[in-house]
Fold this protein.
Amino acid sequence: KKLGPINAWWITGFDGGEKALIGFSTAFADYILMEPSEEYAPTFALMQEKIYMSKIVVEFLQNNRHVSYEDLLNKIETTVPPAGLNFNRFTEDSLLRHAQFVVEQVESYDEAGDSDEPPVLITPCMRDLIKLAGVTLGKRRAVRRQAIRHPTRIDKDKGPTKATTTKLVYLIFDTFFSEQIEKDEREEDKENATKRRRCGVCEVCQQPECGKCKACQNMVKFGGSGRSKQACLQRRCPNLAVREADEDEEVDDNIPEMPSPKKMLQGRKKKQNKSRICWVGEPIKSDGKKDYYQRVCIDSETLEVGDCVSVSPDDPTKPLYLARVTAMWEDSGGQMFHAHWFCPGSDTVLGATSDPLELFLVDECEDMQLSYIHGKVNVTYRAPSDNWAMEGGLDTELKMVEDDGRSYFYQMWYDQEYARFESPPGARPGDDNKHR
């Protein structure tokens, strides 16, 4: 009684030590609980099982963020409890029995961390534990809000859409998304309306902005510019964080890896058939190790520097690669050429919605054997008109080239790292660079 009211209780010891400590704070000091009295020992033993379980989980996930739930179970079951406790081993049953307590301690641990530290709560292992044990995040506030009733929402008829589109956009959406636009998916709309929003019932959602963190200082209400659009660092909803982590993981699983031609063909050697390849004319330059040529004849078809070709992949089930020949030479490795690759629209973020005849310039090149060349193709550049900004909505012919299997076009440069389309570079290499 002389200590005064307890302001908060807490557990600590997440630093790799042997002991997990429980303490409480008053207006005068912080206190650590040591040995319990005989009367309180059974109750304190149950609390010790909880806090040691929390200690194991937090310390294990601090340095092993991508482990599975089974890995955590193995860690728990192989950990020997400290001496003096009334149990001799940790089990999965004890983890699931105390899952609500463990998750709440993980939430508190994340709240005490720095803003740049990734939260432990959204690791795959913790998300599995939350689902298996049916843990409620922000449980105390959730129970308090159960009695609150909201008035029934009246769904009004939305009527026809008021969106305005150009002819081109209308054609694209009418082709690919006609069923999606016409279908009234109310359940999906309801899910999308709540997606990426706070739960509104957990303790974190209920507290006000602190007004001190970087996010609050940027808010208009606190005199900031309001540009960052970030929530208060003290009000980051755990339910939203777990849901976002699950959704991001699903998206990552569905993204196919698109290896570049350079990675697929690098280091491969193909047996050369010199009877189908012969140089046309004398070398235009020689540096002692390489003789550079302007033209070559492959299967009775003449190619020269600057032409575009189709390249055979090692896997015959793959489509032909397309490239521009920027140099040709012969050295100890055989008859070679330098390929500057084109990227088909299907390998960009456009995917299957792209024009199958449209290519994109990319920053990928490679030295290849001439024997990989399948044949010559025509790739033309379609420059935007001088009045392109005023042509929106006009009926234009979308077909750029005839689909004869050898004709393609390109309009843009594709930045693979940022998935961004840019205007292609205007400068072309000079004559003195053609052999390099």
Q: What stands out?
A: Residues 261-385+401-433 form a domain with the SH3 type barrels. fold (CATH 2.30.30.490). The chain has 13 helices and 15 strands. The radius of gyration is 33 Å. The first helix runs from residue 41 to 63.
